[in-house]
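Assess this today:

___
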Amino acid sequence: MIFLFYCMLYLIPAGILIYLAGMIYSRNRQSARHITCSLLYVCTAMWFVGVFASLVNYPLYFNEISLYWVNGTITIGALLSLHLWFMNGDVYKKKNGKYLKLIFVPGIVMLLTFPIDSWMIRGDGNALNPMFIPGPGLYLLWGIDFAYLAIIIILTIIEMKKGNSAAKLWLKGILLYFIWTTFMLMASIVLESSSYNFFFYLIPHGSLFWAFAIFLSMSRFDYLSSYEKRYNILFQRSPSGILIMDEQGVVLEASPQISKYLGVEREKVVQSPVISFLYGIDKEKFYNKYNMVFEEQIKVENLELSFVNKIGERKTILIDSDFILVEGKRFLFVMLKDITDAKTKEERVQYLAYHDILTGLPNRAAFEKQIDYLLDNEIEFNLLLLDLNKLKSINDTFGHQAGDHAIQHVATILQGVISDKHHAARLGGDEFVLLLGVKETEVIIKTIQQQLTKPLKLTTKHEIRLSASIGVSHYPSDGQTMDQLYSVADKRMYVDKKGVL
């Protein structure tokens, strides 16, 4: 009956821990965190089995099992726990973080001193009723184990302050484990020689609080989650591009669609800074914005980003992002949608709304927008109207294609004589308008007239000479509105046209 009681008290918890270890390991076999956590569960299970073995074999090898098996697994478990928490807090990646590995030295050294006689335990020499009397080495070992636990508690509190929700569960589990283990250990030492010496055998059960705290954090906060499952369900099937990036902008995961956007294989994107694939982007501005997003945890919605990818394609993508917590660390989860085609169509519509199809010059709508700007800001300028002479005659003689060619030729001349501070537009038919600086107007008119004197070749056998009538009005002396300025320039242009005709 007592054997069955021991099985229920120790082997059932050990079996549960072994099951949890297998479940954690199967979630992600490549993750160092998963491997360490599963080993911690196995080590804790062996602690239960060790206590069970010491009881069912009592008094045979009682001291040896208690020392090498039970206390050995406790120390190894403490080392694994500290290693796991260092990885959770990315302690190793910090400056001089590699030197923190020296913290493990005391625990390892104590394990190596187990065989020293009377150092770890002092028995009374009675094999029929052995007394487990701790030696100075064992007390020192317990002190080191509790020091490791204290470091873990400090690291957990730090993670809580960073906003790690899972850390709250960890702290509860650790504190319960600490309180339980301390009470049971002290009680077992004080009551060693009394009839209440059973407290020693309940020490392992405090670890269950910690084990279940980790398990609950996995379920609630995706702690130690499976990348494989996420990849298969979300990354592989998503029609949008998906990136998971760390604080430095390095890509940790990328969906298959990303290779189409960036023009490079997905395998080359992973573990590389994303900016290295975005050509035409200012790196300093990009990182300043990225750091601000991370520091202030800004949720990005419908952000447009244009760049040239690895194979020279111009791409425009729509970005939405939010933060996720994976394995106790915050990452940026980014969803990308390629809107290059839609953006190109939008730009084309915008272009046609303000440009003349035949000549490529700005149209009447663009002209009205520009002149309104000049009038609103009271900027002095000249309005020049230009009308191509005898276009009807050209159309009747050589056809409308020749007439279109003549209009395009005039547009080319206008584009060549104006600079960025001037504006030229086609109002329709053979009528053009220019908004010019006052000082440059006369020079530009002469240049246009000189260019028009050069023959325009229609075919190898035919060429024509073009001419244009010009009228100029001045703001503000000739008018205060667009209609007034246009009317004055139009009248002067027709005076010039009568002289030609």
Residues 62-88 form the longest helix (27 residues). The chain has three domains: 2-221, 227-343, 355-500. The radius of gyration is 41 Å.
